[in-house]
Fold these 4 entries.
Entry 1:
Amino acid sequence: MTIEATHLGKQSSYPQHYDPTVLVAVPRILNREQYGISNEALPFTGVDVWHAYEFSFLTRKGVPVVGLLKLIYPANNEFLVESKSLKLYLNSFNMDRFGETRALGISSVVEIIRKDISELLECDVLVSCFDHNAQQADSDFNTFSILEETIDFDNLICTQFTENPELLESSNHSEKIKWGTHLLRSNCKITHQPDWGSLFFEMKGEKLPTSESFLKYIVSLRNENHFHEEICEMVFKRLTDKFQPEELTVTCLYTRRGGIDICPVRTSAKKLPENLTNIKVLDKPSFRQ
């Protein structure tokens, strides 16, 4: 059994009490090597942003507290957290009691989670909790052109559904582009269950892809079996290899599964989506989330 399959694809019982031992760290290098990405010389910086919508615990008086967790950790560390292990871990808080008041309980639990996942991933992890009164910030991607709306969609022909970077074609002009698509679909690396989402990228350089070829390339991910973070890094590397852009940022906003969504961001521009990557801000979900 691989590290990645510790929980994924297997029937697992939810812990009845707080249990950090269920957490599993997966080495990022397991996927990066096949694309020529070295941990010692990453072509990008970035973060992984997670939103956990099914978070709850009890106060000392037995009253349930619910909230929406946001977790952020860097892409340059050696590990990612396996998603089902995080789900099991967060659910292990459900019936345990923390704090005499709601506020004290949240403060205590958030610090426990921050400490546990930071130790697991061997890096600093940011954690915050939002309640139903939290104001959502505008999406960072409101100004991006959605490719399905800008091309002759009904006459687009797609024939390849396994990742193929040869589909990417160069345009005849250079500029800065800000594109998005809601057609992202890939599959879980272990269970092969479909993962849905939206992809946004911002790119500046002398060579740029055509909109039609880029959309065909994203469609070609439809039968790929990778974790969300791996898909984001693969797209970033393919665009870098093909076009050598001056600046490139790729963001994947995946639809929540098991109450958790995963939003990896990779950039060469050292400019991250402002609201998505701000631990103090509850960013507005995208159409597919």
Entry 2:
Amino acid sequence: MFIYMLIFVALFKYLASHDPETLRNDVVSIVFAGDISLGPPIRKANRAACPYQDILKHVSTYLHDADYNIVNLESPFVPRNVTKKDEMAGKGVHIKAWPESIAALTSAGVRAVTLANNHINDFNNISVRVTQYILKQHSIDWVGLTEGCRDPYEPQIPIIKTINGVTFGILAYCGDTANECLKYREGQSIGVAILEKETVEHDIDELKKSADVIIVYLHWGKEYFSLPTENQRRVGEFLSNLGVKLIVGSHPHVLQGHEWINNTLIHYSLGNFVFHPHFTYIGRVRDLEHDAKVLSHKLALLQHKFGRGPPSMTELLKVVIDKNGIVDAYYLPARIHADLENGCVYPVPLKDEWKLICGEEDNNCYQPKRGYPVYP
């Protein structure tokens, strides 16, 4: 009888710390998602989009169920009267979303966004200020911005939250390989936080004073490359040595896998979550003439619907933390579906089943955590 009791206690402890719906009340669950653009043709004014509140309907339950969540918002909100003269000069791609598209985020229960990406300043300071205003109106947190026109910029204001007795802090930076963030940040009174060694060291040292666990969301890597670069790994090691427990990446528009470096989990890229197909199919075409855009959109939708390429795959990342760091981490594979009739693009989970990061079924793990339990 005593042996059975020991087995029961051991099993209970194992399940309590290795189930996504953990029974412990001293931990926090945070869900992360990748790149979201609510620009064309998802923008309803283009007559080729589903209602905003339907875009994330297949994944909203996973966002709602977590204690906290954050996504990469890559389409800044702008007023309807913006024109080409308001665009960032010399920049090739400008993405904009109408203010009412915030309904896509609020209806899905999005709690926070990172704005540290290469599109937040697409319309100079207008897109930053309007985006801040819309997010604040709807009680959505943001991170990844700095004030000031010249380097060194003012320190960014991190997200700091205390849930279930655990205090975590989130910082976000842009270090994309095309250097768009660095190139277009200069001269703007407010804009993206730049990934620079001295800046990061200062921000993390300050955040350590108030947060048990530090998380960094990065906009980095090469677009459409399914493997991280050596530089990404070096940055990951640098942040791990500073005490960061979790690094989540965006920008490549495809999944890039994940690994443990010491006690730090790095998910190099979560890929697209909601993005106009013109930007998400292999062999994309740049600078199309206006009369060819409709055809390119239809071709992209077809590739979304029938293709098996990386741009159509995404996943949610769920991390459970306590005061000491990461307790467990899971991923939920999903596919970006496209409706050929109305142009709607929306993520749908492949199965209603979270999988253990670097577990037995995980074939995207480069380096598992030492001593990390794997389901038999």
Entry 3:
Amino acid sequence: MSILHRLLVVVFTTASVALFTGGCGKEETAPTGAAPVKTLVVGTEATFPPFEMRDDKGEIVGFDIDLVKAISAKIGQPVEFKDMGFDALIPALQAGQIDLIASGLSITDERKLVVDYSDPYIEAGLALAVRKDEKTIKGVGDLQGKSVAVQQGSTGAKTAEAMLADKKIGSVKQFPNVPLAMMELAKGGVDVVINDKPVTEAFVAQQKDIMLLPETLDSDSYGLAMRKGNTELQTKVNKALGELKAEGFFDTLKVKYFKAE
């Protein structure tokens, strides 16, 4: 999520490596004589607004969702979304249960060992959220001895664990999703939440008791992830991303989801 996202320990076996080059897309009915069209199965964790979330009707919506739908139209494949826990996304990709991850996934060297990424599509960074009545935390240098909430498997979690090892913070609580981490902060269960800045901004806008500190911990980029070695899908996705950027589609998404003019 930079929202959090995400330590995954992957155990390689001969069987799992073989799955890297496979595809899980479902075949759709095609006109007689035409090749079947495979559905692009996309994994996401729909508690990461404004990138992925559920609307009042229970439908999965968000920046990433609109983006993938636009990509699917470009590459000529229908899309199906699967909502799952964030730390289950990469294992599901490796097991062939999904074809693509679209879930505010930060591009990291560690993840590059087990997945292939699209080109970056948005810049992000880790931010600090505190309660508005907090008097002692003004920035990163004030976190020694403080309790920190993060999302499991996120870059925020990885950063917090490193800070804990260096005794720059007092403790870490990990939660399955960002809303639970923010709830813990709001009720006083922790002193600060470390999370991706765009997502933290979305939560702060809706929470009267929480505020965002101006200092960020680092910066990173989000990318879409596919199985290692799936160069065909990677090429298609990158071509579509390039076309969408040139057409101004990303500007439209930013206005829609970040109110950016």
Entry 4:
Amino acid sequence: MGIFSNIAALFTVQGNKAPNKGNTANPNTDKRMLQGNAVDELIMSRLFSVPNKAKQAVSADTVLSLSTVWRAVNIIADSIASLPVNVMQQLPDGGKTIAYQHPVQRQISFQPSQIYTKYNFFHTLVTHALLYGNAYAEINRERATGYPKNYTILQPDRVTVKERNGVVFYEVLQAPADPANGQLKPETREVRASNMVHINGISWNGITGLQVIRMLADNFGLALANQEYLTKFFSDGATIAGVLKHPGRLTNDAMQRLRQSWEGTYGGSSNSGKVAIVEEGMDYQQVGLSPQQAGATDTKKLTISDIARIFGVPQFLLEDLDRATFSNIEHLSLLFRQHTLRPWCKRIEGELNTKLFPYDEQMRFMCVFDIDDLSMSDLNSRSQWVESMMKWGILNRDEVRAKEGYNPITDGTGQEYYVPMNMTNPAQSPQPDTNAV
């Protein structure tokens, strides 16, 4: 028995009965896992499907084969990965500045390791978190300073969160059990919680995120079943859907030859639009879509709405513009930034701030995503923002130029702040002249 055969044995479904792994919606499931009393097994796998009522092969790979899921995951991961992220230092006067000299700054803003760039690093972590509910990146630290040296992204289906004597740690699967080679137990290694960046989604215990694909397997299964049905309908059926009527009785050989001739001439998408020619008194009667076939297209629209709801992505961003208007797209974009991207950024920031900095630096240094960068996508909005910041003295010209990627003004005048002339301090307002006649 090979390695993959042993892994498959853990996920074998006998009949329609799923293996007893506990209810993922039950808080006790995560509690049992944290206590380390459960049998060692993969949490989730790209190779094996999750049981669902639609009886579809629901796994990370099959779910990503849905164009709506592909787009939804990419739009969130791309948006977060494209945001500038910097190590900010808290100044004594309450201000903040980018800590360019901090050891974490180059890694987190440019290249976390030699394997992947900052963009690929965050894109992969967000993708894992969206599909598996958990994303893991192991921190490899410098021995001398203790600061992170680089990071290694781990497959989420190979990491299990456990607890021993009140201490949480991570068990990473190195190799599954292989009795044929004398390996009776899986080969694992332990990683301390302080050396693991763990980004989770919805959770019962605040540590382990619920498995998205497993929790919503029926939703994804319906979408896959509908896609399979429509694919078979358009690929296997004759393009001209109808009935050939013959006045006489055909032999089996004649009927078979007629069927092959008809399907070879008019079947398939490449023959769409051809004119059917019938002879020998035959009659062709066109048949419209059945209610089941017509309902499949409506079901596809419903699955798009369902997937958009699961990931928190407006439907117009999934290229579904049925209900999009010029007036509501801007508002929906704002809601997407506020209620989808911002919470994910805050999750990542919180995890980075507690794992990348020593305890005595955690109040002075922090990783921050510049989510406002998304609102600067069009020149009109950007120019209005710049004008407002300078008009009310919030930013000076050099600060604005730095945000726009320009060099500061050489004569130093860019450091001056400006406010409207009609704005004064009431406490310093000029008193009326009492000597005036």
